[in-house]
Amino acid sequence: MVAVGEQAQVSRMYEVLDAEIASVVDELAGRPGPDRAPVLRARLAALRGAEHALVFGRIDRVDGTTLHLGRRGLWVDGEPILIDWRAPAAEPFYAATAAHPMGLRRRRHLRLDGRRVVSVADEILDGSPPGPDDRVGDGPLAEALAAPRTGRMGDAVATLQAEQDAIVRSAHRGITVVEGGPGTGKTVVALHRAAYVLFALPAAAERGVLVVGPDARFLSYIERVLPSLGENDAVLVTRAGLTGQEPTATDTPAEARRKGQAEMADSIRSLVAARRPAVAPIELPLGSETIEIGAEAVGEAIAAAHDLPHNPGRAAFKEYLIAELRRVRAARTATTLARIDADTAAATGIDLDAAVAADLESLGLGAEARELGRDASTALSELAETVVDDPRLDAAIDRIWPRLTASDIIGPQTDWTAADLALLDEAAELLDGPPEVVYGHIVIDEAQELTEMDWRAVLRRCPSRSMTVVGDFAQAGQGSTVTTWRQAVGDRFERHTLTVNYRTTAEILEYNRDLLAAIAPGQRLSRSLRHGEPPLIAPPTLDLDDDELVAVIGPDHLDIPGAIPVSACRGLEFDTVLVVAPAEFTERDLYVAQTRATRRLVIVPEPDALPTLRR
């Protein structure tokens, strides 16, 4: 009967959702204007994205009021019938506990199959005894922990835990850093934080949200999460693709570290600065003659461009020199005309200008005399304007202050590595200024993988410094050059640590205890909510369930058929993981590989010892 009562309300919510979708579809069919159409398409995508498992929770207060929670808010006659999970009113659903019930008597979890309510699970929070309408049982978290992996991350909007939700809803407007071991839900927090920002922080959402992940495999793994939360406005890019390009070559770890160091920014700045002229006299072509611009004027032209990037600075430098050439041309022209007048007066004893002006005045044509004077000034100006049209002038200035591209500074090659792209981005800012596209908020997952030069590329795309940064330095790859968050983002950030493990079993964590102590002595193992079998060492055969997701992970430098290189598995999870040739891994890479499993870890000492897999 409880499910029947909930079903009626859920069905009503879907009716309202369908009506909203139909209304938007009808308006789009009417061919709205170019400003309105994108808004409608975004709204339609959000409505359709919220349709799956539209309703997932309910809170009952001790005062008798109730609220249903879902993926978006719905209203009827101005009254809410469904509260968006990101709204302040929904916070007790995630944060209330028996010790701190936040005014709640009951928290209810609903599970839907399509549009049908198939189960209800209640938590009594105020200490009162269960009543006839209560269905106390395992909630969706236990169900999610037991479910097999699918190869795609799903949203956790119904299962966010209090320590995660507090970070997701953080009102901090600066940089929020989230640490935690493997399996503690860092990626869940990052993606739900992105959805929360789009909903709750208009100033940030106005410029959009960017989500940065380590590689294309990872983006494929997470790409359905935000649409399932009704959000399609976030942009997902790889760390390398942040600059708008993708790498076409690969560096060795040592070379990646070299290129990723902050000192490279100083080197690039020096290379760009060296292409600006020194203060010295220069000669510029002007018609059939060459004119020397003195060192003082050149210094003033350089100073006019001092605070500008290289190429805009060149334009300002050129404009100043053209003004100087105009002045010189006008002065020379005036001097020449004056000399002609003087020579004529000396030869004839007549001041032609004065005589003509006097004659015009005697005829009552003084205005014409003044106009003649203006015509002479205009002629001088027109002569000066020919400076701009001289085709040799731009070429001459280009030899003094050349136009440059980023590849002129970094190198002429056509194949770029991920580290090269960060260097190109640094050069591009020095040459042309900050990137045109910036974001109101940036979420960075697996942030420990970014080099110092990567961080510079990220920060220049977020002038407001509104960011959510999640990572674990114990899992840093071989190319990373950053070892502390202060080194990455500076002194001003708010740090949180996730302590509960939702993925890795207690047995697997214990197996990795000594390894973690070696690579991160100050970091404690997280507390696992899962238990399973102890790790296995090279069994001859391995029996698998039909729906079991299996991964073979090997070191990057070994070509093992069917294996995922360890550098490409950060952030991913599988039911069973076979780690091949552990002695060939670095310690940090081995820690990453051995913490990807949610059920079973198998250690395979050599590639030729892989067990036979049977389903």
Indicate the topology.
Blueprint lengths: L1 H28 L6 H14 L5 E7 L4 E5 L3 E3 L2 E6 L6 H5 L8 E10 L2 E9 L15 H7 L15 H7 L6 E6 L5 H15 L1 H4 L3 E5 L2 H7 L2 H4 L6 E4 L14 H8 L2 H11 L8 E5 L2 E5 L1 H10 L5 H39 L3 H11 L3 H24 L1 H10 L5 H5 L7 H15 L8 E4 L7 H8 L7 E5 L13 H5 L4 E5 L1 E2 L4 H6 L1 H7 L7 E2 L7 E2 L3 E3 L6 E5 L9 E2 L8 E7 L6 H7 L3 E8 L7 E3 L1
Parallel strand pairs: 2-4, 7-13, 7-14, 8-9, 8-12, 12-13, 15-16, 17-22, 18-23, 19-20, 19-21, 21-22
Antiparallel strand pairs: 1-2, 1-5, 3-4, 5-6, 10-11
Task: Offer a few descriptive terms.
615 residues, 6-stranded parallel β-sheet, 23 helices, alpha/beta, elongated, 6-stranded mixed β-sheet, 23 strands
Task: Give an account of the 3D structure.
The chain has 615 residues and is α/β, with parallel strands linked by helices. The protein has 23 helices and 23 strands. The strands form six sheets. A six-stranded mixed beta sheet has the order 3-4-2-1-5-6, covered by helices on one side. It has a six-stranded parallel beta sheet with strand order 9-8-12-13-7-14. The chain has a five-stranded parallel beta sheet with strand order 17-22-21-19-20, with no helix packed on it. Strand 1 (55-61) and strand 2 (66-70) form a beta hairpin. Helix 10 runs parallel beside helix 18 (418-432). The chain is elongated and about 125 Å long.
